[in-house]
Structure formats: structure tokens, C-alpha cells
Amino acid sequence: MDTEQLKQKILDGDRRALARAITLVESGRADHRSMAQELLSELAKHKRQSLRIGLSGTPGVGKSTFIESFGMMLTALGLRVAVLAVDPSSARSGGSILGDKTRMERLSRERNAFIRPSPSQTHLGGVARRSREAVALCEAAGFDVVLVETVGVGQSETVVAEMSDLFLLLLAPAGGDELQGVKRGIMEMADLILVNKADGPLKPVATRTCADYAGALRLLRKRPQDPEGFPKALMVSAVEEHGLEQAWEEMQALTAWRRENGHWDRRRADQSCYWFDQEVRQALLARLHTASAQTAMAALSGQVAEGALTPAAAAEQMLQDHLKG
Amino acid sequence: MDTEQLKQKILDGDRRALARAITLVESGRADHRSMAQELLSELAKHKRQSLRIGLSGTPGVGKSTFIESFGMMLTALGLRVAVLAVDPSSARSGGSILGDKTRMERLSRERNAFIRPSPSQTHLGGVARRSREAVALCEAAGFDVVLVETVGVGQSETVVAEMSDLFLLLLAPAGGDELQGVKRGIMEMADLILVNKADGPLKPVATRTCADYAGALRLLRKRPQDPEGFPKALMVSAVEEHGLEQAWEEMQALTAWRRENGHWDRRRADQSCYWFDQEVRQALLARLHTASAQTAMAALSGQVAEGALTPAAAAEQMLQDHLKG
């Protein structure tokens, strides 16, 4: 299948073509890369947009169950839903989030749902680009909602937030002390905080946790991209399927407001520029990874370690002799 | 004064020459930069080493008082002490740590002490290089101990740890909950945790805090560069000048062990290679800061924001047309 055919099938919403195109953007081969670039450029002309929802939560908060229940609710509303994952740890652990589709058994059987496990990658930069391009492919394939899941480790939340229109933080009910466990930076990224497991014996704890976070959110400075009352903290039960409709209504309200007030378009443009900048930086630094650059770095490192060259003098030599700009 | 004269005066321990040389490495001017490089390369040949002690602690833990008391104790032992600061926030706040020498009134009057406020810099990369080079100048000037102070913000602790032989974390007495406030990564960097203000009414709290941290340190994996029992948590009172001798004895014991076991030299070599690598990366990325690169980036960003180019396609164009390697 050539790029033109692949493009057409993706625009027609063909899931196998979509899966194949994602494999293409995940490939490290140069010919695949240039095909992927061409495909993405062509598809971008159609300017199709999904609602891209980023979702973060540490292991154990019930992310898979939430995505399953929330995704099923959306498909029941007639919406098409794609689920992707950004998992910088998968290269190390071998495993990957969403690796086991059985964790979302019902949703994976849905005709209007598309679930793609995260690829194993070597570094977050690569993970970020491939995920972002997979999101773009899902948008071109006409999905109404693209959910991008991540585990809350290191920079992965920033990466996901920079490719999402809405950012959700999923939390488990917990004592007041653990409020501190959520980094301020992550709180500030969240559009909605969802306290999951608001069911059974945990319900009272969930209620308190939700109130704590609502209080904490009120202490944050109001952001220009938010209408009155946002960001919000809500309770949900993914298992009992409670609170999901309300959460969806809040997401829609927030989205509508941002579209009307120009924030949606501005944020999309800012994100594209952010990724452009990131790509340029990564490409520059990639010049250090060629075999000849590595050899030169190793030789100079040896001299630096012995004290024969200062770090700055060695760097100057490296730049002049091997990385001439 | 030419570079040769400046070099000789620094080697003679002349404080005014040292101050002048630090001003030189802090300068952004190209001619200053090349003079600084030459000077540092020449001085490096003398292979003089100080004990470089990194010290981190959030505002309010009593860093200045500690440095004053600890520094006075060292000079009383006949040692020469230099105090520098790494402050990535100074560019923003305008103020700088150590900016006010009156905060260390006694030490600043000591003939065997040299205190240098942190320069105002625009980014942590610049702060890091200049601080590292200032440390090298102090070493060449024959100081026995170089103390490098930083506020615990962002990456500044890593920067200081990478230019230190020992890393101290200064803490205030606090309830058990606040134990969580110290990031695990920082705990893992520390060679000694010093709980300050172990005096007056805070003494019982300090005792408990110290025991809590000692317990937390025992949970960390033993590091190859540590003899049995390290890292340690100790109580000190900078105001009452208690515990400082003991802390100094521990530092000397740790240093002696590391020298004997080859960790000292290896760590120094590793640090130099780390900074070499950082310098190369920064120099590569600096190519984005030229006027012509900025103009090209802005133009391409405009097309990316409009959706006329994908981020990856724009990056490719930037690399090919403006940053040809």
C-alpha cells in the first residue's frame, strides 16, 4: 500500500490502516520515517480535530478501569474513541501500559474504540514524537475523542499535557497527608482532578480527599484559559460507573468555553510550536550520537578525565573539529 | 595584568587576583572568555585540589549562620576557606544568595576566608559553568576547603553535587510529616544530613527529626562510594556552635576513606567528563540563539502555528536550511 492509499484509508476511518500508520511513525528506519512525514503532512491538510484528553495517574488509582468505563460511556453516546499511552518506562521495564488489552476487555471489543499499547522506546523524546504523531493519525481517522494515558513519572505528564486539549489527573482516596504527594506542577497542569474509587467503604475517604483537592485548587492562581470554577475536583467510581457523565459534562463545558474564547486554537498553535522547538533541539543533540561523534567524545573524555584538558577546552575542540556548524 | 601575571598571583593565593579572575570567568565577552579559558587551562596543570563541599538547604534553615560558624571553625584550625554560591534564581529575583556579606560578618573579615556572592545569570547552564570555573580558581589559589552553597530549587542541587566532593543537606527541625518534603533524589545525593537549630526549645524536635532522617537514610541502598555507616544524619547548632567539630570529623573520615579506595579520583574524573558533555550540548543548542537562527525559527513557527507545516517537517527544514551540520 502506498502513502496515498494509506492516507485515503485513514481518512475513511479504517482501523487497520490506522494501526499500520502508527507502526510506521513508530519505526526508526529512515525510509519509514520519510513516508511517515509525508503521510502526516498530507493528513494535516484535512485539519480534522479530536478532543484530545490527557490522563495521568500513578499505578493503582484505577486508570485502566476508568478508561474502560469512561470509554464505554462515550461509545454508548455514539462517539468514536481512541486510547493511546505514553510510557517512558516501557523501554526499561519491557512491559508497557495498555500492553495487555484484556485490562480493557469490553472497550477493546467495541467497534467504535481503538486501543493502541505504548511502544517500547529508548528515550522520552522518541516516545513523545511517536505519541504525538499517533494522536495526529487518530485525529485524521476521525475519532471524536483521543485519550492519552500516562503514568505519573518524571516528565511524562508534561509531554502528555503538551499534546492534549484537556488534562485529567486521576487520584485514589487518601489521607490528608498524602495531598503533599502530588507535585504542585502537576496540580497546576490539571483541568479536572478526578478522585476515583468513590464507592463502598472508600466513599467517605474519597469525599474528604475530593474536598481537600478542591480546597488546594482554589489556592492556585486563576488561569486565563479557565472559566469561573475551573480547575475542578470531582468524585468518580469507575467500577460502579458513577460520576462519569458529570465529568464528561464538565469537560464539554470547559471545551466549549475555551473554543469560544479563542484559547483552544491558541493552545493548539502553541503546542505545535513547542513540538517544533523540541524537534529542532533533539535533532541538534542527535549529532552527538553518530559513530564518529561518539568516538571523538570518548577520546576527548579520556583527556578530560586525566586532567589534560579542561571540560570547556575539550568542548571547544569537539565543536570545532567534529560538530562544525 | 596579563594572563601570565594573573596566573602567578592566583597561585600565590592573592585574593584580589582571584576575585578578578572570577569576574573574568563570569564575563560573557568573547575576549574575556578566551582569556579565562587560557587561564584555567594553565592553572589546571598545577593539579591543586581543595576539599569541595556542596551545601544545600531551603531558605530559613540557617545556611548563612551555618557557613559562618563552620567557616570560622575551619579558619581557627588554620585552614583557608572559600565560599561560593550557585543561585539559578538570582537572575529572576535580582537579589542573590550571599549577596549581603553582612550575613557572614565575622567570616567576611577573616584573612583566611574568601566569600564571593553569586553572579546574576540568565540560565542554569551559564550559572553552572561559571560556578564550576570559580571553584577551579579557588582550588588553584590554594584554598583547603571550597564551600559551594545553593538553595534547594529545581536542578541546582544536581549542579552543585556535580562540582563537589561532599554534599551536605542542611535541614531545620520539623514534624514527621515534613520528612516527605525532601525529595528522594536529594536524599540520595547527600553524604551528610545536618539538622540545624538543635538548640533551645527546638532541641527535642531536632533530635526526633535527626532520628527520622537517620532511619530514612538506612532505607537507602548502600552506595559503593560510602564506608559503613554513611550517609549519616547529625545534629548541629550553628548559633551555639555545637556539633560542627563532629560534622567536620565525619567529613574528613569519609574523605580519607574515599581517597584510599579510589573513589575520590574516579569521582573527580567522572565529574569532569559530565561537564565536558554538558558543555558540548549547550554549545550545540546555543546555535539556536544566533540572530539568523532566531529569525528562521520565528518564521517556521508561524507556519507551524497556522498548520501549514507539521512540527517535524518544520524541524527538518530548519536543520537543513539553517543548522547544517
TrEMBL record, chains A, B:
It comes from the Bacteria. One of its GO terms (cellular component) is cytoplasm. SUPFAM superfamilies: P-loop containing nucleoside triphosphate hydrolases. Pfam families: MeaB (PF03308). InterPro entries: GTPase_ArgK (IPR005129), P-loop_NTPase (IPR027417). GO terms for molecular function: GTP binding; GTPase activity. Belongs to the SIMIBI class G3E GTPase family. ArgK/MeaB subfamily. This is Arginine transporter. It comes from Leisingera methylohalidivorans DSM 14336.
